[in-house]
Amino acid sequence: MESKLSIIVPAYNEAARIGATLVRMLQFADESKLNVEIIVVDDGSSDDTCEVVRSVAPDDQRLTLLKQPKNMGKGAAVKAGMLQASGDLLLFSDADLSTPIEDVLLLIEHLSDSCPIAIGSRGLKASNLEVRQPFYREMMGRTFNRIVRMVLGVKIRDTQCGFKLFRRTEAKALFGAQKTQGFAFDVEILFRARLAKYDVAEVPVTWRNDERSTVHPIRDAARMFGEVLTIRNMVKKDQKAGLLL
User: Fold this and answer.
1) Residue 151 in contact with residue 194, Cβ under 8 Å?
2) Which of 17, 131, 190, 204 is close enough to 124 for a disulfide, judged by CB 3.0 to 4.6 Å?
């Protein structure tokens, strides 16, 4: 039986680019012949994001819009989409498609019974960085990665690339337990995966930096550093209480 792919797209004030992203994803679904559903999770946008999503393909049953009651954070939006998804394979992809949707085929190749998670990476030698981030962003990313390695023991070169694929069972378990609502949710998911002894394949992908990123280079970096410590304490508390996967 053919596997179904769910694509979760968190969106906050993405009216300017979500339309083109969804058109490309639907084209990919047609070209690849994959059984695809696309779930856009609007995170309390104040612009016309929802209207644009509804207008892209109003009669296409593969496209669903979920609306958060208010702006709750990227992590909360991805979690809502993951828990709603009906696919056998669950991908979350950033709304800017900095990694082209076609690269999900590379991630799928790395999934197996022993490896239920495959994540896109900008940090490997074979990664194709067509448009790089500004130097200061790359330096901040490397510093953040060192902190994650030191504090959480997550030995992943790039925890923050917004392109990650999970098998259904592991996705539902990890995102069901997730508590981080902001940008550092990826770190919590990967930390929980490590403690649950889920193997993670880090896969080189193409990356085209979008200057319109909604990540603030200083404010969000400082917040994420603090969240790493919070994640460690929170997940360890779950571990003590026997609440881990």
Assistant:
1) no
2) 204
Give the 3-state secondary structure of the chain.
Answer: CCCEEEEEEEECCCCCCHHHHHHHHHHHHHHHCCEEEEEEEECCCCCCHHHHHHHHCCCCCCEEEEECCCCCCHHHHHHHHHHHCCCCEEEEECCCCCCCHHHHHHHHHHCECCECEEEEECCCCCCEEEECCCHHHHHHHHHHHHHHHHHHCCCCCCCCCCEEEEEHHHHHHHHHHCCCCCCCHHHHHHHHHHHCCCCEEEEECEEECCCCCCCCCCHHHHHHHHHHHHHHHHHHHHHHCCCCC
Tell me the one-letter amino acid at 111.
Answer: L
Q: How far apart are alpha carbons 84 and 55 in whole angstroms?
A: 22
CA-CA-CA-CA dihedral for 100, 114, 184, 37, to nearest 10: 50
Q: How far apart are CA 166 and CA 116, in angstroms?
A: 6
Encode pLDDT of 113-161 as tens digits. Answer: 999 999 999 989 999 987 666 666 667 777 888 889 999 999 999 999 9
